[in-house]
Amino acid sequence: SAPYSRRPLRVEYALTGDGRDLASALRLLADWGARRSSGGVAEAYEPMRHATCGTPLEARWYCPTCALAVSDQEAADTRVV
Predict the structure, then answer these.
(1) What local confidence, expressed as pLDDT, does residue 50 receive?
(2) Does a structural domain hold residue 33?
(3) Domain range for residue 35?
């Protein structure tokens, strides 16, 4: 943490690497939840958008080696026992 105001004392916090990794998953869950209705009343849903062009963002699997988006059918299923 780093103070950005001495009076009153205010501190800016930064996420750790693990926190940044988890933040991505939480953004996906928040987006999923925002698309659902709450208490039977549908709420206005505004998707996250690309800051450069304004296009709604979509979560996709991505292969960094091939530099390609991967479909669910192409993804190898890895099970941990």
Answers:
(1) 94
(2) yes
(3) 2-70
pLDDT band at 39 (very low <50, low <70, confident <90, very high): low
Cα radius of gyration (the chain): 19
Q: Which of 67, 57, 64, 50 is nearest to 28 (CA)?
A: 57
* Tokens 């939840």 sit on residue: 33
The number of domains in the chain is: 1
Instruction: Tell whether 11 is covered by a domain.
Output: yes
Structure tokens at 16: 């750790």
Confidence (pTM):
0.53
Neighbours of 2 (CB within 10 A): 7
Residue type, 59: A
Q: E-assigned strands of 1-81? A: 2-6, 9-12, 61-63, 68-70
Please tell me whether residue 17 adopts helix, strand or coil conformation. Answer: helix
